[in-house]
Specification:
The chain is 34% helix and 16% strand. By secondary structure, it is an alpha/beta fold.
Length: 340
């Protein structure tokens, strides 16, 4: 991949034509695809504001942090924008075991002309910094704060990177871009959903030029994603079933917001539920295996009530096949608080 160093964006694309957004903007892109360019997912649905924020990162070299609940497609959103720009993209998961040496590099013993020699092997940050690569830090708020200071200066516009072991200062490639995703905005695990999330230094958070929020899509768009992922539900009966599944997920989100549930259904969970439905052929069984069994025992009666409202079925009801009709049910109105 050393030839990447000499590459630069050689085309411009219309945001309106490439992403279907009502915007006159054009952004730089590459004509040819590289091995590091993500595959295009034709079923992916772009959020208007978040897409524009990411495109601003590519077009204007802005540092973009995408924050939101789990399963909303934050990392995929960045990847799919990069895929349509033919922009090489590398994701790094910042779990608690990522060290400074992983990011910066280390000395390693290698073979040169049959001889063992010690040679500096660059980490992912200096490697990406010198290439036209979109570097994405996944789970940014899970990284240890002391490790995160390694990239402090890189976050600045045209920020250089100092390799102290090599007495070298690296300048970023003109097409280097930096993104990150996080469930929180550096505030830690406030609601108990994200064990392992760290409180981050706000001087570093302040260096992110753009902070976009990606939460749940409108119901019709979420249904469209489910149908695109599971084509077997594309008929009328399947479409009706998908609407009920999304409505069920929305009830869990409302219940979580009201403090009645300790977990919620993400769009990823709904897609998994629809996929499992094709395996087991029973909407209730697929739901229990996809989400119901993740719930606390004390909350399962409330979840069963939500399910009954949407499907007019008990969770232990006889199987309902994907092609069979589901009783109309009483609807999925907003649930009252527990005990209300």
């Amino acid at each position: 991949m050393s030839d990447l160093i000499d590459l630069k964006p050689d085309a411009r694309v219309s945001v309106r034509e490439r992403f279907g957004l009502h915007s006159p903007l054009t952004v730089p892109a590459f004509r040819e695809r590289d091995a590091h360019v993500p595959e295009i997912d034709a079923a992916y649905r772009f959020n208007h504001d978040v897409t524009l924020a990411i495109l601003a990162g590519f077009a204007q070299d802005r540092r973009v942090l995408v924050q939101g609940l789990h399963g909303t497609g934050k990392s995929t959103h960045i990847e799919q924008v990069a895929a349509r720009l033919n922009w090489p993209c590398v994701r790094v998961n910042l779990d608690g075991h990522v060290s400074r040496l992983d990011l910066v590099g280390r000395d390693a013993v290698v073979l040169r002309d049959g001889q063992q020699v010690t040679e500096f092997q660059p980490g992912i940050v200096p490697w990406a910094l010198q290439r036209p690569v979109a570097l994405v830090f996944d789970e940014y708020d899970a990284g240890r704060p002391d490790v995160m200071f390694v990239i402090q200066r890189v976050l600045e516009r045209e920020g250089k990177f100092t390799l102290m072991d090599q007495n070298r200062v690296l300048s970023p490639h003109p097409a280097f871009r930096l993104f990150a995703t996080a469930n929180t905005v550096g505030l830690g695990n406030l609601n108990g959903l994200y064990h392992g999330a760290q409180r981050l230094n706000h001087a570093q958070i302040d260096r992110w030029n753009i902070v976009a929020t990606l939460n749940f899509l409108p119901a019709d768009e979420e249904v469209a994603i489910v149908l695109a992922r599971v084509p077997a539900l594309a008929d009328d009966a399947g479409r009706s079933l998908a609407h009920r599944m999304v409505a069920m997920a929305d009830l869990t989100r409302q219940g979580f917001a009201a403090g009645d549930l300790s977990t919620l259904m993400s769009p990823r969970t709904v897609i998994t539920w629809a996929e499992n439905l094709q395996i087991f052929g029973d909407v209730a069984l697929a739901f229990r295996l996809s989400f119901g069994n993740k719930c606390d025992d004390a909350e399962k009666p409330l979840v069963a009530e939500y399910f009954q409202r949407c499907f007019d079925l008990e969770l232990q009801a006889p199987p309902v096949r994907p092609g069979e009709s589901v009783p109309p049910g009483p609807g999925c109105a907003r649930p009252p608080p527990r005990g209300g």
